[in-house]
Amino acid sequence: MKELRGKDILSSFDFDRETLEHLFEEAETLRKKLSTTHLKIADSKTMATVFLEPSTRTKMSFQMAMLKLGGSVIDFQPESSSLQKGESDLDTMKIIDGYSPDIIVLRQSKPFFPHSIKEEIAAPIINGGDGTNEHPTQALLDVYTIWRELKRVDGLRLGIMGDLKYGRTAPSLSYMLTFFKDVKIYYIAPKELRLREEVKEKIRNKISFVEVERLEDIEEELDALYVTRLQKERFKDPSEYERLKSSYVVNLEALNKLKRIPIIMHPLPRVWELPQEVDSLPQAKYFEQAKNGMYVRAALIKEILGI
Ligand code: CP
After folding, report:
1. What is the share, in percent, of the chain residues with pLDDT greater than 90?
2. Taking a C-beta distance cutoff of 8 angstroms, is the pair 268, 291 a contact?
């Protein structure tokens, strides 16, 4: 198992199978305790949340997890900060780090930004999303959800659908699944939104995968379908976004054509690609998935703080 105490978490490759299974078991224990009470194990510890791109789930679940463990949270507010006076992101991080937080959760739009500054920052950095590159703790809650729902990860047949070009959750989830046995991923996307070559390069020979354009192109029964949003904010050409907007929608009609409806997952937020009509299916797990994030992130905080 990997020692996570004091470590940065920048990529899904920073874990291994044993560490993941330990975190999932720990998340189960914390779920029982934290649903009824707050703990005091992180008192005198502080987390700084620095989100330079919008977030609801990642920021709130990390903050709630830290508070429920008995720690404190200081939240950086970019819109009222000296970033508005032209201060750089690096200087901002150095200043926050100088106040000695025990963990910094950072979201930033530039791929590999946390990797580029880690030597200058003393506090452990958790990558809360670096542009199109990675979102490792999203993968953590995604695999935790699969582990809870299916009671296994080995042998998984997973469809990952949507914007695989600009989305960061598909790469991180794919990297994390390389730690398990006999997993097969079907990447479902219009050709303009296919998985980036650099991502395929990192999983080739480690995991079995197939690329298709439509859900109906998959002959095998899926255990889970992971739907993702078209990343509007990353499109340079708005007309390209408008053109691709209707290229995939997972509605009841599409799901009812499948031999067996798999569990439906989504990192959220969703827009038009997963209509509310799907929410009533027992296979719809995306709200549970978001909730799982708080428990598994609490387990990760506990490990990094060594408490
Ligand atoms: N899934 C996810 O990262 O959501 P937020 O952008 O709301 O944090």
Report:
1. 92
2. no
136-289 folds as Rossmann fold (3.40.50)
102-147 tens-digit pLDDT = 999 999 999 999 999 999 999 999 999 999 999 999 999 999 999 9
pLDDT of residue 246: 76
CB contact set of 49 (below 8 Å; sequence gap of 6+): 59, 62, 63, 73, 74, 75, 76, 104, 105, 128
How confident is the prediction for the chain on average, in pLDDT?
96
Whether the domain at 12-134+292-305 and the domain at 136-289 fall into the same CATH topology: yes
Establish whether the linkage from the previous residue to 78 is cis, with ω within 30° of 0.
no
Among the options 45, 59, 68, 135, which is catalytic? 135
**238-248: pLDDT as tens digits:** 888 778 877 88
Mutate to test the pocket of ligand 1, among 61, 127, 138 (most ligand atoms within 8 A of CB): 138
- The CATH homologous superfamily of the domain defined by 12-134+292-305: Aspartate/ornithine carbamoyltransferase (3.40.50.1370)
| Cβ of 268 less than 6 Å from ligand 1 | yes
Spatial contact of 12 and 136, defined as CB atoms under 8 Å apart: yes
Question: So what's the pLDDT on residue 129?
Answer: 98
Take residue 75 and report the two structure tokens written for it: 């939240």
